[in-house]
Every structure is written in C-alpha cells, then in structure tokens.
Structure prediction request, 446 residues.
Amino acid sequence: MNTIVQFELSDILPRPEAVLQDQGVPGDRPVPDRIDAVFTQALDIFARSARPTGTISELTAEELTPIFRGEGENEADALLARIYHRADNLALFALTMGSEVSANIEKLFADNDFAAGSMLDSVASLAADKASEVFEARFFQDLSSRGLITPEHLVLGYSPGYCGWHISGQKKLFEYLEPDRIGISLNDSYLMTPLKSITGLLVSGRKEIHQCEPHFGYCSSCKHRSCQERLARLVS
Amino acid sequence: MSLLEQISTSLQQGEDKQVFELTNEAIAEGIPAKEILDNGLIAGMDIIGEQFRKHEIFLPEVLLAARAMYAGMDQLKPLFAKEGIPSIGKVVLGTVQGDLHDIGKNLVGIMLKGAGFDIIDLGKDVPPEEFVETAVREGAEVIGMSTLLTTTTPMMTQVIELLKEKGFDSTIKTIVGGAPVSEELARDIGADSYGYDAASAVDRVKELIG
Prediction:
C-alpha cells in the first residue's frame, strides 16, 4: 500500500554542527557570531517554508526486479543486486522538502544574500537526508510491531545514482511509486524537482546482507563515502 | 586609515551597509571609480580569497564579504555606465543541460566577480550551443561549466567539441567543475582546466587568461 507521510519538522532539522560542517566550517573552532546569525536566519526560513512530505510503499523482491533493472544501465557489480534478494522486507520511498524551500534559496541568491542562500541550501539538503533516516526508523518500527524484526536486523536505504544503481533507475521507480502525488517530478536526465528530494529503496534484513567492502569499480569516482558511516552501524 | 582601506576592511567584515555608505562617500570625495574598485573593493576581496585559501575564514564569511562587495559595486555601476565595470576577463558560466543544480556554479560566479572578472551567468540547464554562441558573441575568454550529475558530464564534452568544430578552441578556454568532475575527467574530455572549488576556480581562470 502506498502511504503518504508528513514529517514533523522537529524530526528532520539538522544539527547545527552538521550544517556548519557542510559549509566548510570545522567543528573544532568557535563559530563567529556573524556565521551563527546566518545559520539562525537560514533555519528560520527553512522552518517557515519547508513542507516535508514523503511516500512509501512496500513491495516484494519480484516486484522490485524490473524496477531495479531500470533502463539496463546499472553497473554489473551494483551493490543492491547482491542484497535485495536476501532481504526480508523492502519498501520504495520518495520524499521532498517542498518547492518553497528551493524558491527561497533562489530568491536569497537573487537578492545577493549569498551566505543565507548557501546556508539554507545546506539546511535543506541535510534535512532531506534526515527525513530518509526517519523513513528507515519508521519502517524498522513498523516491521518490528508486526514481529518481522530481530535484534540482528537492520534497515538501510539505497538510492538510484549511488553504489552502481544507475540514476536512470529513477524512471521505473517513479512509474511504480508515483511521487508526483507529493509534488515531485522527474526530468529527462532523471533529476527531481524540487531539488531537495530523495528517492530510494529501504532494505530490511539481517545485518550481514548489507556488509560489503567498498572496493567496487564505481567507488573510486564516489565523493560521498557515506557508506563508511552506514557500515559502522553494522557493528553497533 | 584611508577611505579605500576602510572600504576594504568593512568588506572583509561583511558589513554591506558600511561598504555601501563608504563607497558613496568615496564617490562624493571625487576618488575615481576605478580606484575605488581596485584599491577598495577588489583589494578587500583579494584578502578574503587569501584567508579562505589558508582556511583562516570559511565559506559563509566569504559570501558575506561578497554581498558587501556587490553593495559597493552597485554604487559604482552608473559611473562605469558607458564602458561597463572594468574587468580582468570575461567568463561565460552555466550549469550544463539536464542539470538544475546551480549552487556550486553560483559560488564560482560570486568569487570570480569578486576577483574582478566580468561574468555572464547563463543559469542552469544550459544547452551546449548557448554556451558557445554566448561566448563568441560576448568575446569571452573562458567558458565555465558545472554539473552535479554523472549523467550530464557528456554535455561538457559537447561544448568542448562544439568549440573545436567552430574553430574557437584556441581563443576560448574551458574550465569544468562539480561533484562528479575530477582533474582526470577534465583531462579526458579535453577541458583546459578544472576547478576543485570556487576558490581554486578563480586561480585556474586567472591562469587560463594569463
């Protein structure tokens, strides 16, 4: 069943340190007052303009196969290809921070308020990331309440465009999930509007199915390396 | 402290209102606009750029200073009305076709403008032909292309090939940047340079223009 979810702002607001780090401000230095003021301004605009909404739908591995195959452009050793068949439960999701946030970022830049525009961009990106973590946690809780989770289980999200799952996978994902119902559209280069949107697959399974060494061919060109943090959760 | 030094200092502190007022004061005192620009505004941005490279200040502070610079430049614009703001080079910038991410490109434009370049920002989702036609028409020395997506990096190649096809590859240089772009990729697709971040893009464009 395809469910629509409104996120609580308090659940997705990023930590100030994370935002400042995204802006290149190291955590070990005192934050100058003027940067702090810009952060407060950006957070306030985000709180007023964000409409964080998501949609999620459970599906089987069989249903996922053609979606994951997408346009046939995945890497031969795509990580998810070795994972999803071993998963116990799967769900596709899409979420967005809404179009008003993106409009505000553009307006701030147009008004030469570059620092606030850039800070708001960081706040919105990190809030979207946090919303995907909320989806992971909710899926875990939902499965748990249905007795489908053991202490050995872990839910992790995987997105088109990462770890060998080609970005063109967005096309079939959109056809299945229909995120346009929450205001997300896809262009010809598989880019979402509003920009601060995320799609992906939630994979619930025993921790070891997520285990991998990030030494795939595509890892060398990856600048995100967020898998390192995710892998750390496997041993926690 | 001279008036121009005060402009530079206020700009470094990101005090846009002060820069606005001090620039007007300098104009009223009859200081030539070019001198206010070079020894007040650009001098301040040069210091900001240097501090940023040394990690003494960070992106938000650079952007606050840039806002202050724009506040001053806006006052000078009417004085340069005929010939436009003097620049050390003209750069056509844009996010390539198929990509709507423009934060990185905007930051590069802000930094280049702060360093004294004339920027023609074509925005996002820019077709290859538009990059080339604009650069030729405007007499730009450099085309700067940005993308956040791996799927749209071929658009950069198309611009470079179009320049070659039309015989402008020796007069119009190219610089590329963005999350999926690396020095290696830039070399592979035949770009003249690669900007790792906004600050390095300024240095590289200066090198390209010589």
In short: Chain A touches chain B at residues 23-26, 32, 34-35, 38-39, 105, 109, 112-115, 117-119, 121, 161, 167-168, 187-191, 193, 195, 221, 223 (CB under 8 Å).
